[in-house]
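User: For a benchmark we're assembling, each entry needs the component sequences followed by a predicted structure for the full assembly. Here are entry 17's components. Please fill in the structure.
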Amino acid sequence: MSPSASEPAPRSADCAEPSGLYDLAVIGAGSAGLAGAVTAAELGLSVALLDSSSGTGGQFYRHPVPATGALRPEALHHDWAAYAGLRRRLEASAVTHLGGHHVWTVAREGGAEDGRLGGTRGGPDVSRDGRQDRSGGGERPWTVHAVTGADGCAERPVRVRARAVLLATGAYERQLPFPGWTLPGVVGAGGAQAMLKSGLVLPGKRVVVAGSGPLLLAVASSLAAAGARVPAVVEASGYLGYARHPRVLAANPHKLAEAVLHGSALLRHRVRLRTRSAVTEVHGRDRVEAVTVTRLDRDWRPLPGTARRIACDALAVGHGLVPQIELATTLGCATRATPDRATALVLDEQQRTSVPDLWAAGETGGIGGAQLARVEGEVAGLAIASRLGGRPARPARVRELQRRRDRMRAFADAMAAAHAPGSAWSRWLTDDTDVCRCEEVTAGSIRTAVADLGARDARTVKLFTRAGMGWCQGRMCGAGVACLAAGAGPVAAPAERRPLAVPVPLGALASLDEPSGEPSGGPGGGSSARPAEGPPMTHG
Amino acid sequence: MARARTPADLVGAQAGPPFEITFDGRPVPALPGQSVAAALWAADILAWRTTRVGGRPRGAFCGIGQCYDCLATVNGSPNRRACLVPARPGDAITTQEGHGHEPLGV
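Assistant: Structure for entry 17:
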């Protein structure tokens, strides 16, 4: 069976077996993925939408599951109507929604991807002009590999075949270490918000919010609205950075409106905003009891004599977001450095990556927020329909969306520049501060690897110290390790290749050699293959 | 929006009756739809794992399944991400010590 654009694949999840070929597989059911999936489906494409969560909405529109009986999930959000609209369109569509599917790799059928050998455009079989024979011939479909279950530990491996893939995998939080950040009660700022939005819980009664970036204001106002006391929001940057981009600000009035919304909420809850300051130490024995807040200079160097202690029972901390792009980098997609020194995918005006028939939208192309993600998802959906359908889809709409996207991308760049980590933040660290949370590697041992053993990049530090080699594969410590490895020099992009994007039960890997047909069931025991570059970890 | 007393008040949650799970043998209430981590947070339990090297306590950090700090042993099965795993009536959550390989005998 090879349903074409005019012949949708069956919508039941039970039919998502390897023999069925979708036009499009969308990975991630947040703002970008939802917009892309419904746009493509409404233009007649058969679409499978995969997400690790059982529901839709991604992190921004994360909300309690129906079992909680929440009557007003929108109370934790702004712009809920936009999500409600996408959800209605999804329900009215023929999209196959595969919730609880953790995608661990994407592969081109028939061998190595074009991009793996250097990330160049074009391959021997694939034309990019959208006019080639659609019956098969030169096209090699993608296979999206996933494992199912709430945390991917479960039940069965699934393969979804598709002619095009849209990566809408979003972002996770950037963390910078400081003394005491491993103490229970210290949680990610986005993590606190995620737990609040889905689990309706708070990490404490008195929660300091700290780090850098506009997310802090949203987190503080939602924690306060939900009943927490927030004695302070501690922002390492100033807000004057935005003033360097007056035209960008003027073109994005909705962003100013958001800032006013959060600002007035903070005033109402009597939350104090301290800019150019950081939490430089957490106090407590087995859980948070207080934090030390220190003023910073322009490079985020702590100013002596400015430390103040604030009593609290939790700290929500984060230094912006980083694109989650391991599926793309494994395929060799070209990347770029963002103004806040993260790594994002290079995308063209149609949201194409540098690898043919692989699109991306939303935070994968750089952090820009839910509204931008929706626009990019729709651009991608229209472009994919055009590519597979052989004729332009709604060109006037595409131009309008591209204009809006460019305007919001400009704001995103200004925002990233304004909140980019200062070069001297690592002065917060003492030698016994854990930098790698998983492997408990201290700043002192990393400095030794750099000063005495000659490590100059995160990968070499990893080989000497195991920093970044644990469960999270450097997602939490990558930014910190790269900065320490650079010493006084420029910070190199951390090594972000993770051949397996999530841990995979060995049974799922073993079943790959089985003849394609029904995906095999059973996790094959409790052991997991680790997404490690070296030998498998022995400590899990 | 006015200050709510609790997050559940804020969203008008009208969950079914709480059920019970246990944490290291001690009963902990959970609401339908909550993850294991959320139920533990609601009971003011912030740590349910000790680290392999330092034996230090850890719990949920990133809240979205990225950091693996919230690994717990759920009904005897180690290395489960408590922030993603839904709590079910009667679940026995136990502190995961060190590498979490004990049940595998390695």
